[in-house]
Specification:
- With 188 residues, this protein is α+β, with helices and mostly antiparallel strands.
- The protein is 29% helix and 36% strand.
- The strands form 2 sheets. A 5-stranded antiparallel β-sheet has the order 1-5-4-3-2, with helices on one face. The chain has a 5-stranded antiparallel β-sheet with strand order 9-8-7-6-10, with no helix packed on it.
- Helix 1 packs across helix 3 and helix 1 crosses helix 4.
- The protein is globular and about 50 Å long.
- The two termini are 30 Å apart.
């Protein structure tokens, strides 16, 4: 019904400090695939969920294996909702629901893998500026005022981007706040 797959990559040229680029290339590749499958708006919700029309269609998990100061490999888990018809939460959807099509997964896998390979090649060729520009252009709620929760406190702020370590930067009350994964939640 859906894609649940794991990829093993060996990003030998990637330094530990640049590990967020694993999230970037993967999320961009899935977003590229979603754009090709639907005419609806697709965004990346930091750090690496893919949303179409504001609904989550894909989650990504990455486990890094490090040797010394380099990666030996990374395992990238991708869960992409393709043909599922119902969800327990109103914030999730599938490409099938959004396009009113039934996807043949065996046919779609090659295209998804092609998108992943193309973005991985950009990573391998150290096209960090291109990857970062595309990621920021795709970032959900970028430069929009919204409500967030951090440390059990609600606040209004504007996402301004991410820093070199992949932390989310939110401007709130004339201050720039930096958040690691799971330190901030989107509200509305």
């Amino acid at each position: 019904m859906n894609f649940t797959l794991s990829l093993i990559v060996k990003p030998k040229a990637l330094t530990i400090k640049d590990q967020f680029y694993l999230n970037i290339f993967t999320a961009l590749a899935v977003r590229d695939y979603c754009i090709e499958k639907t005419t609806r708006k697709a965004h990346i919700k930091w750090p690496n969920d893919v949303l179409v029309e504001g609904k989550k269609v894909c989650g990504i998990l990455i486990e890094n294996q490090i040797q010394g100061n380099r990666f030996s490999n990374a395992i990238i888990g991708i869960g992409l909702n393709m043909n599922q018809k119902s969800f327990g939460v109103p914030t999730a959807s599938s490409l099938g629901l959004l396009t009113e099509k039934e996807f043949i997964l065996a046919d779609e896998l090659e295209l998804l893998l092609h998108k992943l390979e193309a973005r991985y090649m950009q990573l391998h060729q150290q096209q960090y500026d291109k990857l970062m520009t595309d990621y920021l252009t795709s970032l959900y709620w970028l430069n929009e005022i919204h409500t967030f929760v951090a440390r059990d406190q609600k606040f209004e702020g504007t996402i301004k981007g991410i820093d070199a370590a992949g932390r989310l930067m939110i401007n709130a009350n004339d201050n720039t706040l930096y958040f690691d994964v799971k330190e901030v939640s989107y509200v509305r």
